[in-house]
Sequence to fold (381 residues):
Amino acid sequence: MSTLYQSGVNIGILGGGQLGRMFIQEALNFDAHIHILDPDSNAPCSKIAHSFEQGDLMDFDTVYAFGKNKDVVTIEIEHVNVDALDQLAAEGVPVFPQPSVIRLIQDKGLQKEFYANHNIPTADFRLITAAKELNDHLSYLPFVQKARKGGYDGKGVQTIQSSADFEKGFDAPSVLESFVDFDKELSVIVARNMNGEIVTYPIVECEFNPEANLVEFLFAPAKVSTEVEEKSRVIAENIISKLGMVGILAVELFLTKSGEVLVNEVAPRPHNSGHQTIEANFTSQYEQHFRAILNLPLGSTRALAASVMVNLLGEKGYSGKAKYKGLESVIAWEGVFPHLYGKENTKPFRKMGHVTIVNESLSEAKKIAQQVKETLQVIAE
Ligand code: ADP
Fold:
């Protein structure tokens, strides 16, 4: 198949947050024109896109009209109107990832069934339609309840330890997933273009902030055996091939204490666990997504050095116009790369930016990352 690329190619993105913003930064190197649809007039992409339209991503007519005149349509968030994307695709607009993939991934229940049907290792699960059915699963405790639709960043996910927790259960169609006593959370990013070419990034390890349920640190490469790395790569490639998906797919994994690798969930777009690829790999995840959706040859995923990514979350106790305390100190250190997402206002735990630390040695990068974490803070004026 030939490429969709040409200089000045018009790409429409549903969503204008930080992922879209970093995509634009890379797409400019290819002289592409990026058009954004987002409900927030102050979204991180609003001031840097070739065109920006404020509108509801869940509204059929808005999404359809936005996509109609684009050369390619993609997403940076899964919560979008898929019927409109289906319609666009049926009328010949290339939409990547494909609408059928977005529909599957929007629903954690369908996602789990997909893994089960394709022998992809994942934690056992059951499906319920409302909170009152929690009582039917007493013998399954403890489990993690996940709302099938609409969750993100740990919202819509909660652990149910005992029947005493049933009263806080979500009253919505949900997946009940057996509790995984994991050793590490890992992520593998894989990309596929229309020609079926596949590339996989080195495996990374994510450390979560327990209070915010958000990734706080990311370590690349992950400290795991080559066997675990290989198993994870095979799983990621298997998923993207079985989905027949075009674009970038982030595969979040659990490494259990007994050495098993289980799929937690996937995201069909650039992902928080791939930010470090901007500085630390030959081809960033954003450029890779660009190449994949335009059916260009995929780029080398090889790491140039070890890296650590620190998410810059809004400091507790501060809300209002964001101020970055300590920025001048941290950028004086070698291999420290800040990315501020251009969000005007901070609030506790809001993702305001990230910092990538690149170093020949992972343990040195970790030390610097710890210093960055202690020195750089997002507070309010
Ligand atoms: P989201 O889509 O909001 O990111 P996830 O399904 O990734 O939600 O869950 C958020 C976090 O909850 C995970 O990163 C993990 O730390 C924890 N978690 C999810 N599922 C399980 C499970 N089955 N057992 C133990 N912890 C889990």
